[in-house]
Amino acid sequence: MADKNPRLLVVDDEVQYLGSLGRAFSGSFEVDTAETLEQSVAKLDSNNYDAVLTDLQLTSGGSEGMEVITYARKKLPRAVIVMNSAAMLPGSDLEKQALSLGADKAVKKPIALFAVRGYLLETCQSRQGGN
């Protein structure tokens, strides 16, 4: 991993927010983005990601982000997966569900960019070192 940036898939249906996250992470990661569950599944099927950052709701009132977590964990068991949601509260049932499905961390949206980037980078590096 020292030779290249880790690969990150960012999933969010809010196009402007998705673009902002993509740009913010692009200096530290090779970033791909997806707006829907279907797009994220297609990208997970065709790429080997080191990390996935997904929103909970990819449609109005939906919880497709949980499906992204489940699918990503099956496809990429060593990937770092972070769920973000405006409804996320520490210790909440939502956080517990995300973690039980395979997320490594759950954070409130809008995310604390530097903290999440640092967590993703550090965890990617430690998992790469464990190979």
Structure notes:
The protein is α/β, with parallel strands linked by helices. It has one domain (7-129): 3-Layer(aba) Sandwich (Rossmann fold), CATH 3.40.50. The protein has helices at residues 15-25, 37-46, 64-75, 93-101, 113-129, and strands at 7-11, 30-34, 51-55, 80-85, 105-108. A five-stranded parallel sheet has the order 2-1-3-4-5, with helices on both faces. Helix 4 (93-101) links the parallel strand 4 and strand 5. The chain starts with 6 loop residues before the first strand and ends with a helix.
What are its keywords?
131 residues, alpha/beta, Rossmann fold, 5-stranded parallel sheet, 5 helices, 45% helix, 19% strand
Task: Write the topology of this structure.
Elements: E1 7-11, H1 15-25, E2 30-34, H2 37-46, E3 51-55, H3 64-75, E4 80-85, H4 93-101, E5 105-108, H5 113-129
Parallel strand pairs: 1-2, 1-3, 3-4, 4-5
Q: Give the CA-CA distance, first to last residue.
A: 11 Å
Order of helices and strands: EHEHEHEHEH
What is the total domain count?
1
**Helix coverage percent:** 40-55%
Question: Which regions are unreliable across 5 or more consecutive residues at pLDDT < 50?
Answer: none
- Helices, by number, come to 5
Tell me the name of the CATH homologous superfamily. Response regulator
Q: Could you tell me the mean pLDDT? A: 92
CATH class: Alpha Beta
Q: Compute the number of strand runs.
A: 5
| Spatial shape | globular
Biggest sheet layout = 5 strands, parallel
Task: Please give the CATH architecture.
Answer: 3-Layer(aba) Sandwich
The structural class is alpha/beta
